[in-house]
Design brief:
By secondary structure, this protein is α+β, with helices and mostly antiparallel strands. The protein has 16 helices and 16 strands. It folds into two domains: about 15-175 and about 225-315, BirA Bifunctional Protein, domain 2 (2-Layer Sandwich), CATH 3.30.930; about 330-420, 3-Layer(aba) Sandwich (Rossmann fold), CATH 3.40.50.800. Bound molecules: histidyl-adenosine monophosphate (HAM). Histidyl-adenosine monophosphate binds next to β6, β10, β11 and α12.
Length: about 425
């Protein structure tokens, strides 16, 4: 071990487990890539103000969890705690919304940073795959995104997840509700900090997990009863489209998200095998965010799914993904001449698109065979001096155990045809 360890709240992804993370990212992005979403990549850090204004000055993410830094040039930056504000900033900066084809549909995958209290499923560095559909108000877009996330999770074999759905209203009806909620909350027996929250962000109080608070919230007014006609109709349409697609969901009147930009549709994917950190993904509509960061009105919707928690969900359901072995062929060369020849064969195999690895270093036959076994390769090629004298190598099928000599110059074609 070196003197150094990964920082608190972070962990390293190492083979073979790291292959599962790659497969999860692939599975989440696959339905997006076939639904018109283009790949976007933004910097790992942004102007701190982008998140303060976008995610919200009163959110935990902005007040407590951002990694901020001042550059030598005096710029105030923050490691990105989430992707939506950055992606919208990038779309606006490149004028993607002016190219004429709205919505602008984008997907992304990357690392995010939040200075949170670490626990299982909650890290300071984590990974998301996300999608944003920018510039169009259409309940079919909200439904599309939820359906694609559902499809992604199902393609991984996940079953024990639920979709929680709510509407947070818009700038017409939410303020009326907010006031009613504040009136109710002020009558409760709450601690100082929570009372302060009533003024700044009363909806977040509904999200309080403490039993003594939850008990008092039973009769809290519900946003559902305050939705304006337009929001109600919009929400009904999203629900109808989900139902028509056969995607099950639960109406959750109390679903409030930890980011301030949401309007109307909000949803969360929760997994029942994960304990406290049960949200594997979440998202919603953010019709006002563009204006909040200085852009034109661009009603938008999106989600981000947590890769780390999705991997934990797979473990909780006992799902082992059928991943191909990293290499198909492992070549073991005994002696200088064999090394040179088999190294050439390995190069040719790779060129032919067959994943192959080679017995590097001086380890002797036993050591090299151990590596070959460990690699999970379907075939091994072994060649020593006696084989070379006959112009062959021994090709072993590791599944059947069968071994036969194959002419050196026929190896690539022979393996290719055996693989079909
Ligand atoms: P979020 O709910 O903050 O939403 O994060 C989405 C997902 O990222 C969570 O459901 C969770 O799986 C994962 N996640 C968040 N924090 C952590 C953490 N500390 N450790 C491990 N996993 C974590 C957003 O980030 C929004 N930008 C989603 C969105 C996109 N809304 C509209 N568009």
């Amino acid at each position: 071990m070196s003197t150094f360890q990964a920082p608190k709240g972070t962990y390293d992804l190492l083979p073979p487990a790291s292959a599962v993370y790659l497969a999860v990212r692939d599975a989440i992005s696959a339905p997006l890539r076939t639904s018109g979403y283009g790949y976007v990549e933004t910097p790992g850090f942004e102007d701190v103000e982008l998140f303060a204004r976008g995610v919200g000055e009163s959110t935990d993410i902005v007040t407590k969890e951002m990694y901020t830094l001042t550059t030598k040039g005096g710029s105030e930056l923050a490691l990105r705690p989430e992707g939506t504000a950055s992606v919208l900033r990038a779309a606006l900066e490149a004028n993607l919304h002016k190219a004429g084809n709205l919505p602008v549909k984008l997907w992304y995958s990357g690392s995010y940073y939040r200075y949170e209290r670490p626990q299982k499923g909650r890290y300071r560095h984590f990974s998301q795959v996300g999608a944003e559909a920018i510039g169009t108000e259409d309940p079919a877009l909200d439904a599309e995104l939820i359906i694609l996330a559902d499809q992604a999770y199902r393609s991984l074999g996940l079953r024990d997840f639920r979709i929680l759905l709510n509407s947070l209203g818009d700038k017409e009806c939410r303020p009326v509700y907010r006031e009613a909620l504040q009136g109710f909350l002020r009558g409760l027996d709450l601690d100082e900090e929570t009372r302060r929250r009533i003024d700044i962000n009363p909806l977040r109080v509904l999200d309080d997990k403490r039993a003594e608070v939850r008990k008092q919230l039973v009769d809290a007014p519900l946003l559902r009863d305050y939705l304006c006609d337009a929001c109600r109709a919009y929400h009904e349409e999203v629900r109808a489209l989900l139902a028509a697609a056969g995607v099950g969901y639960e109406d959750d009147d109390r679903l409030v998200r930890g980011l301030d930009y949401y309007t109307r549709t909000t949803f969360e994917f929760v997994h029942d095998g994960l304990g406290a950190q049960s949200a594997v993904g979440g998202g919603g509509r953010y019709d006002g965010l563009s204006e909040m960061i200085g852009g034109p009105a661009l009603p938008s919707v999106g989600w981000a799914l947590g890769v780390d928690r999705t991997v934990l969900a797979l473990e909780a359901e006992g799902i082992t993904l059928a991943l191909p072995a990293p290499v198909t062929v492992y070549a073991v060369a005994l002696g200088e001449e064999a090394r040179r020849l088999l190294f050439g064969v390995v190069t040719a195999l790779r060129k032919a698109g067959i994943a192959a690895d080679f017995s590097y270093g001086e380890r002797g036959l036993k050591g090299h065979m151990k590596n070959a076994n460990r690699s999970g390769a379907r075939f091994t090629i072994v060649a020593g001096e006696r084989d070379l004298a006959e112009g062959v190598a021994q090709l072993k099928d590791m599944e059947s155990g069968e071994q036969s000599p194959v002419a050196l110059d026929a190896l690539v074609t022979e393996i290719g045809s055996r693989l079909g």
